[in-house]
Design brief:
Number of helices: 6
Strand content: 15-25%
Low-confidence stretches: none
Shape: globular
CATH topology: Rossmann fold
Number of domains: 1
Largest sheet: 5 strands, parallel
Structural class: alpha/beta
Strand order of the largest sheet: 2-1-3-6-7
CATH superfamily: Flavodoxin domain
Helix content: 40-55%
Order of helices and strands: EHEHHEHEEEHEH
CATH architecture: 3-Layer(aba) Sandwich
Radius of gyration: 17 Å
CATH class: Alpha Beta
Number of strands: 7
Mean pLDDT: 95
């Protein structure tokens, strides 16, 4: 059975195009009897990485309650990631980058000794056997342009923890009129149907 871990990061709730696309993809996986775990990172915010939490992740001894809670949560998120065959990431573009909520998740799972390690040859990712699908929505057109800094960033950070099989599904031009939005959303749906 396929284990799917899905991350929604849109702040738009029911109006989110990325969340709707992910829901449609997950419905197809549910029909295949896949085990699905979903985190809506906007509705259920994670603790922001700060000095206290970073210290706990480096040296998990004599922790205060805040640090222990964050470390336990980080361990849980990493365990979910380790057991996932497929990671689905909803990544709407906000001001040319991923949402803050998604960055916080990354900060909590990118941990030395847990999801990556340093070797004499350089860093080595420890999450193996997991592939990723990034569903990105944008108001304008940014694919393959200098303004798209988020997809290179996501591919880089995923590779850093060991996930190198990454497919990106784009839904662009969503703020450029209803016709353009409808066409691009339908193209994204068709691509996701192939993914599923």
């Amino acid at each position: 059975m396929t284990n799917v871990l899905a991350l929604k990061s849109s702040i738009l709730g029911d109006y989110s195009s990325s969340s709707k696309l992910i829901d449609e993809l997950l419905a197809q996986y549910a029909q295949q009897q896949a085990a699905v775990t979903v985190h809506d990172l906007a509705e259920q915010p994670l603790p922001v990485l700060d000095g206290e939490i970073a210290s706990a992740m480096r040296s998990p001894e004599q922790l205060n309650d805040k640090q222990q809670h964050a470390l336990n949560l980080s361990d849980q998120l990493i365990a979910e990631l380790e057991s996932a065959d497929l990671l689905v990431i909803g990544a709407p573009m906000y001001n040319f980058m991923i949402p803050t909520q998604l960055k916080i998740w990354i900060d909590l799972v990118a941990r030395a000794g847990k999801t990556f390690t340093y070797t004499e040859q350089g860093p080595e990712g420890l999450i193996t056997g997991t592939r990723a699908v990034v569903v990105t929505t944008r108001g304008g057109m940014h694919k393959d342009q200098a303004s798209d800094q988020m997809i290179p960033y996501l591919k880089n950070v995923l590779a850093f923890i060991g996930i190198t099989d990454v497919e990106v599904v784009y839904a662009e031009s969503l703020a450029m009129g209803p016709e353009a939005a409808a066409v691009n959303l339908e193209q994204a749906r068709e691509q996701l149907a192939v993914v599923a």
